[in-house]
Amino acid sequence: MFRELKIVVFVFIILALLPFTSALSEEEEFVQNLLANADKSNVPKIEISGTDAFIEELFCTDTDSANPALRGKVNYNLGSFTDGCFNSTTVAEMFCNNSLPYTELRFCESACFLGACLPVPMPLCYDSDNRNHSEKGIARYFGEKENGIDYADGCRGPNVAAEFYCDGDWVTSEEFQCEYGCSEGVCNPKPAPQCTDLDDGNKPFTKSNTTSFGYTYVDNCINTASLIEFFCDQDMPLGKLVACDIGCSQGACISSFPEIKTKIQKTWMLGWFSADEDPEFFHGLDSSINGKHLKAKGNISISIEEDNPSYLFDGSSYAEMSTASFPFNYPEIGKKYDANAYNVSISLWFNTNSSSGVILGQSSSLPPEEPIKGALPAIYIGHDGRLRASLFWDNFGAGDNPDSRRYVSDKPVNDSLWHNIAVTYSNRTENVYLDGKKVNSREFTQEPYSSEYFYTLGTGWALGWDPFATSTGWLNYRGKIDKVSIYGYSRVLSSSDVEQLYDESRAGVSPLSPEPTQPPVQPPPSSGGGGGGGGGGGGGGGSSSGAGGGGGGGGGVTILPKVWAINSTQLESGYTQNLKEGEKISFVINNEIHSVTLLKINKDLKEGYFEVKSEPQHVFLKTNESSRLDLTNDTLYDLSLKVNSVSDSAINITLKGISEPKEVQKSLITGSAISEVTSGINDSLVWIIIATVIIILYFFVKNRIKSKKHRK
Fold first, then answer.
1. Measured between alpha carbons, how far is residue 259 from residues 254, 275, 483, 613 in Å?
2. Is this prediction's pTM over 0.70?
3. Of 603, 626, 370, which Cα lies nearest the Cα of 474?
4. Strand pairing of 584-589 and 563-565?
5. Which tens digits make up the pLDDT trace of 490-549?
6. Which has fewest Cβ within 10 Å: 23, 101, 108, 709?
7. For residues 457 and 298, is the Cβ–Cβ distance under 8 A?
8. Can you tell me the distance from the alpha carbon of 249 to that of 258, in angstroms, rounded to the nearest whole number?
9. What angle do CA 526, 529, 530 make, to 5 degrees?
10. How far apart are CA 273 and CA 492, in angstroms?
């Protein structure tokens, strides 16, 4: 019995080895070895998910387009495969089919040499690299020996290369110097530079990166007028301090002044100030022919709202203006002057919710000194939120109730909306325009009070003029100012000029209005007693919000849910807000208005149901869950929506603008042509098991028969 079991084991081993020793033909074994020796130096990393392997979409390229007369290479996701010779007359040609690599044995009418069929008739001499100095080749002479004589390119010293090639039917050679040394039979290529500069040199008007030995040096502004410019010098990084004539912004010198965006004649313009060139620092550039820039005193930053930059004053800063921005013939003490010869016009935009502040001031000295010789707030918002203007001293002091003589707006202007104020003075007449319309005109003669004057944007001396002026007398403005323009010389702005300036710049400063959540519901008509009368207005000089009470009854008005309109800067940095049901956040991406609305709060699941538009998308999110959304129907996610916390009445969310690629569609590898040459092995294993079971049963039955005979 023991001997029979040994026979079973021996047969099992033979059968087990049989498919592996005889399943592959000579051709299949050659192809398998060819594929196994693939160059995998550029194989991408494969992501493993469970038991399946995933890679990016398959690709396959063939350098010789399946031409057997050329030695080509197939590049595939899993490696590179090079044509080879199966024998002296057969080439194994690699090619692509349906993004997969395949090989085919092709007969060469002449001979196969280094993975390519030789020409017909077969030459006496053949050079595999066709005298290419940058490729190591072999020149073979077929005239003497059966398999020919090979002459391989090589190095003859550290800086000398030898190239073998065919000269007619004979092999010859040449030597040449290698500037960067010789290795493996070819000249070394020029070494990659250790220092690279993206803007290719010392170019201060272009921001770029300079890289050297793994370190990156970025051009940057060290202040508003100076730049550190990095570039390569003799393959080493070098930093140079550059003084920028106009200013420095975003890692480069400013190359030109902001565009003057008006069709009004520029020859009599004394100043044009906008923040259009200043997304990083405040520069206060003057684009007029004067070129007299604003000088920041304190922290004046740049606010970007709906892609429009403006000057942002924090309530403790101001900008000093050049006297050259104002007509030189303003009346001065000690000098003769003609009251009819002075012409000046000023227009600017402002946006604030502050209770008071001086937008434009004139004084005999600068802060923090007290202007002993005199001063006045030329354009300012008073303690009641109303706008006042006077260019400039009208010979009435602060204690003479100036509000009775100078312009005072009917309504407060500290409403967080953009407003335009324009004031002109000529021929002893002052005209004031608010939001493009003339609102006041008066006659007075400008009087001198000092031998020199200073002009400030964002502050002014207001002691005695406004009760909110500090003990120092200076009343600073807190809010935004944009598009300041000053005109003089022979004429002033007309009413049509002011209206044109207003229309030209209104779109640049006014933010997009958020879309309404739903149409306003009109009060139903009253049936039976009318509604009570409205409350009376507040007292003179007081806040308009302190109006009297009274009224009520009658029809009702539906209060719409809140809408928060945020700008692009808030969206990019991440905007967090508590939303109640029906409330929304409105924003702009790619010049289109989008919104996120909280439709419903599921109190049991602590979950929010959101609608994202313009094209509606619906999202369910719980605490700490987030979702990326494509709002522009391209290949990128544009918005990240995250739920931070959920309560019964509100959900705290964070919106953030993003630009992240969508996941590339992936293909599951279930098989390829590479495995076809070894197919059938699994079927052989099945037959091995069946044969083994039959043999064991045979010896078992035979042994049982012997046992019965022995008992008899």
1. 13, 11, 11, 35
2. no
3. 370
4. parallel
5. 778 899 999 988 888 776 665 433 333 333 333 333 333 333 333 333 333 333 333 333
6. 709
7. no
8. 13
9. 60
10. 18
